[in-house]
């Protein structure tokens, strides 16, 4: 787990939106994000809808053109590559989608859907390809004779498996899983997650796992990143972040996770955030969370804090800056984390 | 598939029969006789009516008409004294030529404009195209026809305005007829194309390394065009029925002009014969489009 497969440095993705009379405006979907993913590792990405999780995933895959920053894949910066230069990397970087109904072209047979990536990249001869498609179908738990059927003949879970088989056709080394289970029934979710974990074990693939379901992310991820309005607020080992979220936003987000035990659910204190998420077109100055943060101090309104290293993780919050930590120690104030723990 | 086609054809025949019967009744309910306007004496009219079988009771006339129809005979025009079959054979080529040209033009330009509207980022282009699309849907063809005549025929004197003697003569009537359908097809294509580009499989296609052009043809266009092709059936019908007024304006000797003249002249057999012909054309066009759709979209299955 030492070898870095992917390293993202100061990645930014701004979208221009046209809003009629107001003219062109900029949405800062991904703002100065840096992280890395090791071989065979799963990085979970959580955050509210519209916080830039999917944009981040798609920018890494160069589906969106990055505005700024570096995307180092096995040491090579692919951020500025042309379509032709990207072609070999398209094999190694792949994605799985949320909606198994929108992600398969309804006019292609299953064989064509899974075979097309190999066709584009000239892998195998056409007859070998058909055999490979059948193998892939078996890998994801479908029957080889499903090859001539059309997507609409399958259930949601089966369609998601077809999508996974298509992604695996190119032997990728890094897959962005964009909410791959949100559209599925709970019983099917477990099957798909187990499949993804099995494939990861066998092939050493790295995942960027984007999800809403906090419990599922904890289960599958080695590390977790928490995003808010295009910024990475906190990143650390999955268990650490879940047991002891440091960033005020992480605390609020994780306190919203449903607990299947009513007793402990009642005993838990939920942190309810005041106000709405600010518009990504007009984010507040400084830390984007300052409008809703109960602990906001003067600095928070001036500048976005850098990521501070605390307990082996990164937290972008002034409360964990060396200055504040020292202050708290000298005043003998209990650290923030144990207050709500 | 074959069973489906046979079934559709049978349904078509029933539809056609209903159309004939209803038209027959309506035409015969029109006040006056076909020969009234011609300043003939009472005995002459009687003689004419006898010659054409109009003195028989209506149900008998109907039976005779149906029997002739089964032999492929559409009857004889009261006014021109030639068979309706000949009239159709004479006029249909013009109508079909203009109609198909207008239809082809509206399909090609409509789809192109629709895709353009969907992909362009320029707000100005978008607004201009949208204005055209709205105008095209709401302004009737004969108004467009008259304006085209005035501007290009009279003011600019660039193209001839009457008849169909040279290829240049086709420009204005075809343009006038295509104006509306282009707008409808453009609007339809725009919405289906935009919808198709937002599908995840399009993003996937990019992630697989396809170029924008390949994505457009392999993944977007085929899916976006199914609803558009479905519209082609009615569109063909519109271009043919739309030709009635256009043919009057541009003095084209097609079946549209013949049809409108026949109505004012109470030429029963011509009105009936043309209704049968156009009805059959529309039924066949819709059937062909349905079969086409099942061929391009595997989700559409032609079963009963």
Would you kindly provide a brief summary of this structure?
Chain A contains 12 helices and 12 strands.
Could you explain the architecture of this structure?
The complex is a heterodimer of chains A (341) and B (304). With 341 residues, chain A is of the alpha/beta class. Chain A contains 12 helices and 12 strands. In chain A, the strands form 2 sheets. Chain A has an 8-stranded mixed beta sheet with strand order 6-7-8-3-9-10-12-11, with helices on both faces. Chain A has a 4-stranded antiparallel beta sheet with strand order 2-1-4-5. In chain A, strand 7 (174-178), helix 6 (186-203) and strand 8 form a beta-alpha-beta unit. In chain A, helix 3 runs parallel beside helix 5 and helix 4 packs across helix 5 (156-168). The two termini of chain A are 31 Å apart. Residues 337-341 of chain A have low confidence and may be disordered. Chain B has 304 residues and is mainly α. Chain B is built from 11 helices and no strands. Chain B has helices at 2-29, 42-51, 58-70, 84-119, 123-138, 141-155, 171-197, 200-208, 212-250, 255-264, 268-296. The termini of chain B are close together. Chains A and B meet through helix 2, strand 6 and helix 3 of A and helix 8 and helix 9 of B.
């Amino acid at each position: 787990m030492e070898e870095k497969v992917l390293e993202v440095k100061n990645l930014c993705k701004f979208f221009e939106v046209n809003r009629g009379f107001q003219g062109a405006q900029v949405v800062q979907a991904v703002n100065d994000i840096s992280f890395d993913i090791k071989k065979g590792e799963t990085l979970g990405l959580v955050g509210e809808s519209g916080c830039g999780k999917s944009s981040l995933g798609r920018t890494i895959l160069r589906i969106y053109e990055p505005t700024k920053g570096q995307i180092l894949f096995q040491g090579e910066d692919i951020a500025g590559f042309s379509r032709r230069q990207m072609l070999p990397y398209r094999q190694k970087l792949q994605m799985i989608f949320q909606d198994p109904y929108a992600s398969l072209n309804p006019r292609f047979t299953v064989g064509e859907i899974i075979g097309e990536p190999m066709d584009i990249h000239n892998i195998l001869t056409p007859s070998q390809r058909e055999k490979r498609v059948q193998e892939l179908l078996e890998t994801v738990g479908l029957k080889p004779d499903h090859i001539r059927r059309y997507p609409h003949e399958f259930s949601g879970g089966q369609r998601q498996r077809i999508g996974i088989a298509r992604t695996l056709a190119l032997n990728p080394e890094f897959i962005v899983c964009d909410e791959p289970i949100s559209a599925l029934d709970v019983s099917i979710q477990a099957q798909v997650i187990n499949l993804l974990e099995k494939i990861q074990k066998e092939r050493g693939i790295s995942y960027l796992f984007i999800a809403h379901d906090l419990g599922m992310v904890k289960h599958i991820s080695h590390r977790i990143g928490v995003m808010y309005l295009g910024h990475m607020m906190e990143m650390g080992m999955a268990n650490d972040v879940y047991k002891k979220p440091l960033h005020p936003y992480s605390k609020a987000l994780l306190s919203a996770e449903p607990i299947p035990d009513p007793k402990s659910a009642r005993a838990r204190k939920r942190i309810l955030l005041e106000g709405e998420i600010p518009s990504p077109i007009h984010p507040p100055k400084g830390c984007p969370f300052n409008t809703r943060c109960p602990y906001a101090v003067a600095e928070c309104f001036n500048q976005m804090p850098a990521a501070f290293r605390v307990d082996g993780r990164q937290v972008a919050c002034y409360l964990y800056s060396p200055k504040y930590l020292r202050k708290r120690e000298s005043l003998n104030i209990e650290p923030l984390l144990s207050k709500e723990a | 598939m074959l069973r489906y086609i046979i079934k559709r054809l049978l349904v078509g025949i029933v539809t056609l029969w209903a159309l004939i019967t209803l038209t027959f009744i309506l035409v015969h309910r029109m006040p006056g006789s076909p020969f009234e306007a011609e300043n003939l004496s009472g005995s002459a009219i009687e003689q004419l009516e006898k010659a054409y079988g109009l003195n028989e009771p209506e149900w008998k006339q109907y039976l005779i008409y149906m029997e002739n129809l089964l032999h492929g005979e559409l009857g004889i025009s009261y006014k021109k004294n030639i068979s309706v079959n000949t009239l159709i054979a004479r006029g249909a080529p013009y109508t079909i030529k203009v109609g198909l040209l207008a239809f082809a033009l509206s399909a090609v330009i409509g789809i192109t404009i629709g895709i353009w509207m969907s992909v362009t980022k320029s707000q100005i282009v978008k607004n201009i195209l949208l204005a055209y699309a709205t105008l095209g849907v709401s302004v009737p063809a004969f108004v467009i026809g008259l304006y085209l005549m005035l501007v290009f025929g009279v003011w600019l004197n660039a193209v001839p305005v009457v008849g169909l003697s040279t290829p240049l003569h086709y420009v204005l009537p075809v343009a006038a007829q295509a104006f509306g359908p282009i707008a409808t097809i453009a609007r339809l294509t725009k919405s289906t194309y935009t919808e198709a580009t937002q599908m995840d499989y399009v993003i996937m296609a990019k992630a697989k390394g396809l170029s924008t052009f390949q994505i457009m043809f392999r993944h977007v266009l085929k899916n976006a065009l199914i609803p558009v092709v479905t519209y082609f059936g009615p569109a063909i019908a519109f271009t043919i029925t739309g030709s009635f007024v256009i043919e009057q304006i541009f003095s084209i000797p097609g079946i549209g002009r013949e049809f409108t003249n026949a109505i004012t002249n109470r030429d029963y057999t011509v009105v009936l014969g043309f209704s049968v012909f156009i009805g059959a054309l529309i039924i066949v066009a819709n059937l062909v489009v349905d079969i086409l759709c099942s061929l391009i979209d595997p989700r559409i299955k032609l079963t009963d």
